[in-house]
Amino acid sequence: xxxxxxxxxxxxxxxxxxxxxxxxxxxxxxxxxxxxxxxxxxxxxxxxxxxxxxxxxxxxxxxxxxxxxxxxxxxxxxxxxxxxxxxxxxxxxxxxxxxxxx
Length: 102
Fold this sequence. Notes:
By secondary structure, the protein is an alpha/beta fold.
């Protein structure tokens, strides 16, 4: 995993196998960066490159969903994801939109 911060964009690049522990580690690593951006009154954007993920277990997928719900950000884009991850992201987007409407 690599984090890069430029133009209020946090670029997170994932490599290799992912587990619940590696996903939680990444989520914890971005918290201080998002806090810094927020303290400066800036928006927070995530750009996630998952094209080099080899495998992820069920725990990694659950941790990723938990991180998406927990992290403080304005917008997120995920590219290179497997079909499963794309479907989860679409589901979350629909659910969050429904929650905002009700």
